[in-house]
């Protein structure tokens, strides 16, 4: 079965920023005051690595209100190097999350961590080496999945230093397909703008069929830019 689920970040994915709650979520209140998603819904939180410290620790995370965490971010340095996060913090988060029946993905890229996405994705060897690197991260940290946050394929709307190529979107699909093959039972998601990723003419594509063809992939819409 092919599933192309779309989750709006403005509703179901909320960043934990040094507070003991995850904000207002449209989920029923239980007798004990806990909020959890019901049915097929999920409460997904982006947890920035840099927010964890003396004033906000893993023990402050409201696990009873969280279904899944995207740990942000792994910076893409090359096909073989993804860094920019504290390994010990990630290990603590994964252990605590699993103890509370919460799943964890590493969010790869982000606004400032995706400079080399285009250069890596444009060649078969680059994609293969990158997938191997990501699979190793999943295995080493006991992650439940990956959240691919390329901002943005075939677009100059990202950081000025980002590599850009007209074939970025096509190459991103190839990369995601290879990731899904390498991690068939893991969570795979992408963070995306409200408009489709750009096509070869550097304008939003009129089709998302290639992305929709990737089995069991979630799309997190970055709807927080919409008034």
From TrEMBL:
Pfam families: Glyco_hydro_18
Domain GH18: 41-227
Signal peptide range: 1-21
One example GO MF annotation: endochitinase activity
Keyword hit for Lyase: no
Biological-process GO terms, alphabetical: chitin catabolic process; polysaccharide catabolic process
UniProt-listed SMART domains: Glyco_18 (SM00636)
The keyword Signal belongs to this UniProt entry's keyword annotation: yes
Reactions mediated catalytically: Random endo-hydrolysis of N-acetyl-beta-D-glucosaminide (1->4)-beta-linkages in chitin and chitodextrins
GO cellular component, one term: extracellular region
Similarity annotation: Belongs to the glycosyl hydrolase 18 family.
Protein name in UniProt: Glycoside hydrolase superfamily
Species name: Jimgerdemannia flammicorona
């Amino acid at each position: 079965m092919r599933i192309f689920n779309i989750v709006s970040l403005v509703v179901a994915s909320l960043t934990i920023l040094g507070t003991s709650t995850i904000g207002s979520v449209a989920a029923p209140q239980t007798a004990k005051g806990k909020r959890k998603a019901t049915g097929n819904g999920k409460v997904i939180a982006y947890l920035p690595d840099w927010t964890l410290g003396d004033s906000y620790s893993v023990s402050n995370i409201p696990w009873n209100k969280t279904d899944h965490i995207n740990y942000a971010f792994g910076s893409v340095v090359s096909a073989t190097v993804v860094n920019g996060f504290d390994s010990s913090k990630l290990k603590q988060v994964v252990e605590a999350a699993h103890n509370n029946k919460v799943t964890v993905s590493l969010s790869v890229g982000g606004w400032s961590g995706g400079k080399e996405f285009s250069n890596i994705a444009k060649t078969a060897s680059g994609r293969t080496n990158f997938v191997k690197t990501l699979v190793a991260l999943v295995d080493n940290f006991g992650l439940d999945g990956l959240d691919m946050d390329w901002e943005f394929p075939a677009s100059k709307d990202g950081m000025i230093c980002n590599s850009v190529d007209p074939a970025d979107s096509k190459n991103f699909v190839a990369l995601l397909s290879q990731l899904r093959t390498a991690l068939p039972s893991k969570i795979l998601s992408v963070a995306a703008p409200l408009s489709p990723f750009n096509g070869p003419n550097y304008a939003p594509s009129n089709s998302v069929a290639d992305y929709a063809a990737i089995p069991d992939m979630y799309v997190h819409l970055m709807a927080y830019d919409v008034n």
